[in-house]
Amino acid sequence: MRLMIAMLCLVVLSGLLLYNCGNSPQSAEGLAVTAHTPQIDGVVAQDEYGFKEEYAGLTLYAARRQESVFFALVAQSTGWVSIGVGSKVMNDAHIIIGFIKDGQPQFKEQIGVGHGHEDLAVTESLITDLAVKEADNITTLEVEVRASGIIKEGQKELPIIIGFSGQDSFTSRHSFRKGIVLKLK
Questions:
Q1: C-alpha to C-alpha distance for 130 and 107, rounded to whole angstroms
Q2: Domain containing residue 107: CATH number
Q3: How many CA atoms lie within 13 A of 4 on its CB side?
Q4: Bridge partners (DSSP) listed for residue 58
Q5: Does the pTM of the predicted model rise above 0.70?
Q6: Residues 6+ apart with CB under 8 A from 88
Q7: Which domain holds residue 168?
């Protein structure tokens, strides 16, 4: 009986280990500075980003240059898509949220406060380029942000929060959200 329980524990632990390895938010190499610059056009091309991780209904892409960090979020949704940098939860995250409404791109840059968020002053913007597109029930948000605004010298990890909703509203709740940490190289 003890042997059977020990084997069951081993199987469960092995499964958890495999699950966590397969769903790790970091690539083996981490997010390293490269010479490649993604095109911020609302379309993610193959091999455009060095980092890719898939979650339930959302794919996160990232790339890094010395002066900029690029993110793309592709959600199986016609609602908003967002990324927050600087925190794995909404509180204190610098949030960028975008969607298409009536054929027009809409976006806001906000700061997380508790379990909510509020608008930023224009002088606090991190965005240097942004595109939002919607096609075939997929919403894509691509954004370039100033690296100096989110990565301090010697920083080894970048906490972020990602999410999406089925609604075209800056105030609707998320259908999916996940806090993760990207390793920096």
A1: 9
A2: 2.60.40.1210
A3: 1
A4: 55, 75
A5: yes
A6: 159, 160, 161, 179, 180, 181
A7: 27-183
